[in-house]
Amino acid sequence: MSQLVESKGLIISSRNYKEKDKLVKIFTESAGKMMFYVKGIHRQNQPLAPAIRPFTQAVYIGTFKSEGLSFITSVKDVHAYRKIQEDIFLSGYGTYLLSLVDAAIEDHQYDPNLFHFTQQALERMNQGDDAEIITNIFEIQILQRFGIAPIWTHCAVCGETQGKFDYSSKYGGVICERHWSLDPRRYHADPRAVYFARMFSAISYERINGIHLKEETKQAIRQLIDQLYEEYVGIHLKSKKFIDQMKSWEHVLKPLEKKGDAPATEQEEVAEEPESPLSADPTDHE
Ligand SMILES: [Zn+2]
């Protein structure tokens, strides 16, 4: 029964348990999220310590239980997302992404696509790509795991794919300007925000390098996604509140960073990939 298995995994969260132990939630590639009981972690030279820090990926070897607590015996290939670990802003975004993963699927649910998607998001963030854009893409694509699949690709009324769009709950997706009158209670979102939400719904993380957004566009996107989450997901994560608050003090801590002030350009290019990396998954979370 206690056969050892191994799997790649990402640390989702870690908390102290009793005096010297920890409960660590790991998103494993081969068996979904699981809670692990790690003993004596506060001892010096506990070999597992670096592998269970937040924002770490490793291969975890141990006993994986389908119910109750699992155990780690050893680890290999430990990879820390060091930049995220060391930067309070990045850890804010990273924590939020991981909390979304935790909220979106059940423990023990096999979901390698979401595993890879999460891994990519953290990797990108760690490499210095825009954490807000990475987060927005994550939020939009993970909606599917909450059982929500808005129509982004075309007007939900007539199929139009070009022009200005708004979001309509009534039609469960975007509607083109010609059909705005059909839903007076549409979101009245900034068309630029809807433009980028549509792009983000189908983009893969390899293609985000060239996207640079102005602060006001970012704010409009934030508003749109908040409205979607409020309406369809309805969870209020502490980590989300933290990044919202962070906005008000981040420029105080980073006053010198944008000295050169290169003009912000926004790349406008509609993603051509029809499918998001996540929508290919047949094991939909309902
Ligand atoms: Zn239309």
From TrEMBL:
<protein>
    <recommendedName>
        <fullName>DNA repair protein RecO</fullName>
    </recommendedName>
</protein>
<dbReference type="GO" id="GO:0006310">
    <property type="term" value="P:DNA recombination"/>
</dbReference>
<comment type="similarity">
    <text>Belongs to the RecO family.</text>
</comment>
<feature type="region of interest" description="Disordered">
    <location>
        <begin position="257"/>
        <end position="286"/>
    </location>
</feature>
<feature type="compositionally biased region" description="Acidic residues">
    <location>
        <begin position="266"/>
        <end position="275"/>
    </location>
</feature>
<dbReference type="Pfam" id="PF11967">
    <property type="entry name" value="RecO_N"/>
</dbReference>
<dbReference type="Pfam" id="PF02565">
    <property type="entry name" value="RecO_C"/>
</dbReference>
<comment type="function">
    <text>Involved in DNA repair and RecF pathway recombination.</text>
</comment>
<keyword id="KW-0234">DNA repair</keyword>
<keyword id="KW-0233">DNA recombination</keyword>
<keyword id="KW-0227">DNA damage</keyword>
<dbReference type="InterPro" id="IPR037278">
    <property type="entry name" value="ARFGAP/RecO"/>
</dbReference>
<dbReference type="InterPro" id="IPR022572">
    <property type="entry name" value="DNA_rep/recomb_RecO_N"/>
</dbReference>
<dbReference type="GO" id="GO:0006302">
    <property type="term" value="P:double-strand break repair"/>
</dbReference>
<dbReference type="GO" id="GO:0043590">
    <property type="term" value="C:bacterial nucleoid"/>
</dbReference>
<dbReference type="InterPro" id="IPR042242">
    <property type="entry name" value="RecO_C"/>
</dbReference>
<feature type="domain" description="DNA replication/recombination mediator RecO N-terminal">
    <location>
        <begin position="1"/>
        <end position="80"/>
    </location>
</feature>
<dbReference type="InterPro" id="IPR003717">
    <property type="entry name" value="RecO"/>
</dbReference>
<dbReference type="InterPro" id="IPR012340">
    <property type="entry name" value="NA-bd_OB-fold"/>
</dbReference>
